[in-house]
């Protein structure tokens, strides 16, 4: 049986490109976004009672990757990008139905004009991601402390960040425009988003967060911010 889905919300996120989004939610608690309710779901009644929960499940589409299809096996970055495992043994974005799921923190529920929204923290979603369902996280059933994590047992070891003197003014300006920007940058870079095959000490990397191009180099295992360019 096939079944067509209509988004219930649209995600507004500081992540404007796929590069450097963490691999899972809650690795970057400083990432704050919004789920803007859409169509018939854009009403306060749909959210009644949700404020009692601290966390939510968000079910969404990996919409940027849908056109590229899927394969029965994938090579998770965790395994160095070489070993193959089954798509259903992975959280890969290239999947038969292109669906993702993330547990995020519920910050607040609000309304601006006619737009109802849920502010969330710790998301791993690209700006513009269509959301197909939102459900409360229920700790007695969803939290399983004895569960086995297979090849993804531990969160990656975080890398430190330093803002080089040449970037300190630009970082302060970004912080003023987007309070929490520096913490966001630090937590995003802590995940070492550089592609495994392109890690060289003299290379400058860049990623868009909000409306800034965050630029950095890696020196002696430390992320050194070289600039924060307004876009
Ligand atoms: N927590 C989710 C899950 O397990 O289904 C997502 C895990 S997936 C490995 C996380 C990656 O999805 C991010 O690093 C980002 O690059 C990618 N991503 C996030 N939103 C996306 C979107 N709308 N389209 C395509 N890729 C997306």
Sum this structure up briefly.
The protein is mostly beta strands. This is tRNA-Thr(GGU) m(6)t(6)A37 methyltransferase TsaA.
Beta-strand content estimate: 25-35%
Mean pLDDT: 96
CATH topology title of the largest domain: Elongation Factor Tu (Ef-tu), domain 3
Cα distance spanning the termini: 46 Å
Order of helices and strands: EEEEEEEEHEHHEEE
> Low-confidence parts, pLDDT < 50 over ≥5 residues?
none
Radius of gyration: 19 Å
CATH superfamily of the largest domain: YaeB-like
Structural class: mainly beta
| Biggest sheet: strand arrangement | 1-2-7-6-3-8
| Whole-number tally of structural domains | 2
Question: What does this protein structure show overall?
Answer:
There is one protein chain. The protein has 2 domains: 9-142, Beta Barrel (Elongation Factor Tu (Ef-tu), domain 3); 161-230, YaeB-like fold (2-Layer Sandwich). The chain has 3 helices and 12 strands. The chain has helices at residues 139-142, 168-177, 181-190; strands spanning 9-12, 32-37, 55-61, 73-74, 85-86, 99-112, 115-121, 130-136, 161-163, 205-209, 212-219, 222-230. The strands form 3 sheets. Strands 1-2-7-6-3-8 form a 6-stranded antiparallel barrel. A 4-stranded mixed sheet has the order 9-12-11-10. The model has no long low-confidence stretch (mean pLDDT 96). Bound molecules: S-adenosylmethionine.
């Amino acid at each position: 049986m096939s079944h067509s889905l209509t988004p219930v919300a649209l995600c507004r996120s500081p992540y404007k490109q796929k590069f450097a989004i963490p691999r899972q939610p809650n690795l970057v608690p400083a990432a704050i976004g919004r789920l803007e309710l859409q169509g018939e779901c854009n009403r306060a009644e749909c959210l009644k009672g949700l404020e009692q929960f601290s966390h939510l499940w968000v079910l969404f589409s990996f919409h940027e990757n849908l056109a590229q299809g899927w394969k029965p096996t994938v090579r998770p970055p965790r395994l160095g990008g070489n070993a193959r495992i089954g798509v259903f043994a992975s959280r890969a974005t290239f999947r038969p139905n292109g669906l993702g799921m993330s547990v995020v923190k519920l910050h607040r529920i609000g309304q601006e004009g006619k737009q109802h929204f849920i502010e969330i923290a710790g998301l791993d979603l690209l700006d513009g991601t269509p959301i197909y369902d939102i459900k409360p996280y229920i700790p007695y059933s969803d939290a399983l402390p004895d569960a086995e994590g297979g090849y993804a047992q531990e969160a990656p070891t975080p890398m430190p960040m330093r803002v080089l003197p040449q970037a300190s003014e630009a970082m302060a300006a970004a912080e003023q425009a987007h309070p929490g920007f520096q913490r966001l940058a630090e937590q995003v870079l802590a995940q070492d988003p550089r592609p495994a095959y392109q890690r060289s000490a003299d290379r400058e990397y860049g990623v868009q967060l909000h409306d800034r191009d965050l630029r950095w180099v890696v020196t002696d295992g430390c992320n050194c911010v070289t600039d924060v360019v307004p876009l």
